[in-house]
Amino acid sequence: MNAVDFHALAQFRRELRKFLAFSEKAATAAGLTGHQHQALLAIRGLSEHGEMSVGELADALLLRHHSAVELVDRLVRLGLAARAVDATDARRVWVRLTPAGEEKLQGLSTAHMQELAAIGPALTGMLRRFEDARSPVTGK
Predict the structure, then answer these.
(1) What is the DSSP string of the chain?
(2) pTM of the predicted model, to two decimals?
(3) Which listed CATH number (1.10.287.3610, 1.10.10.10, 2.30.110.10, 4.10.520.10) goes with 3-133?
(4) Which of 8, 52, 66, 125 could crosslink 47 through cysteines, CB 3.0-4.6 Å?
């Protein structure tokens, strides 16, 4: 590692932090916490059929199961998600977005895609520099 590598890593982390700060601010403006927004996104984006188990949600968000249960409870109270007990295994609870949850997520996702379009070239350039620095052609 050299000074250029450290500078590139620091700059990359700064850009990621700026995006995360944008995301938190956008979630707050929409009346959600960052975790609530991330949960809506995980349920919609990482599930195969538009629903996922609470355990899968916990794994996706790197949360403990009981924390995911509390998060789902809050989303249900807000009318953004609904839960259903699995028909074949009563221990498993499925979570899906309600139409209000879909609408809230759509608005947040549009804003996030616009922000990514704005910062994407800079992030891509940084990633390319990391790749070039580690390329066998450069001998590093």
Answers:
(1) --HHHHHHHHHHHHHHHHHHHHHHHHHHHTT--HHHHHHHHHHHHH-SSSEEEHHHHHHHHT--HHHHHHHHHHHHHTTSEEEEE-SS-TT-EEEEE-HHHHHHHHHHHHHHHHHHHHHHHHHHHHHHHHHHHT-TTTT-
(2) 0.85
(3) 1.10.10.10
(4) 52
